[in-house]
Specification:
Elements: H1 19-24, H2 44-59, H3 67-82, H4 89-93
Length: 94
């Protein structure tokens, strides 16, 4: 007796249709921006303050994904402030 061969899915090919995208009508996540790991030395006090603030924000329900996202937002804000020139609070404190 001959066996019937069934069409088996090829698990190594990407699926033709993503069920999440089909159900929601769009992309499930934002495309990741190009990132590069950076290493800096920070004082223990500053690092403790940063960690404490991160966890306070998480407990308060803030939309902070991770510490990298919080640091990126803070650094972006600081750079925008310094671009103000003489009006910069950061440059005045240096």
């Amino acid at each position: 007796m001959a066996r019937r061969t069934r069409d088996l899915p090829d698990f190594f090919e990407p699926p033709a249709l993503d069920p999440i995208q089909a159900a929601t009508g769009g992309q499930t996540t934002r495309p990741a921006a190009a990132k590069k790991k950076a290493g800096f030395y920070l004082s223990v006090t500053l690092l403790d303050r940063f960690d404490r603030k991160f966890y306070e924000l998480k407990l308060a329900g803030a939309a902070v994904d991770n510490k990298s996202a919080l640091l990126e937002a803070a650094l972006s804000y600081a750079l925008e402030d310094m671009e103000r020139g003489e009006e910069s609070r950061i440059l005045q404190s240096l």
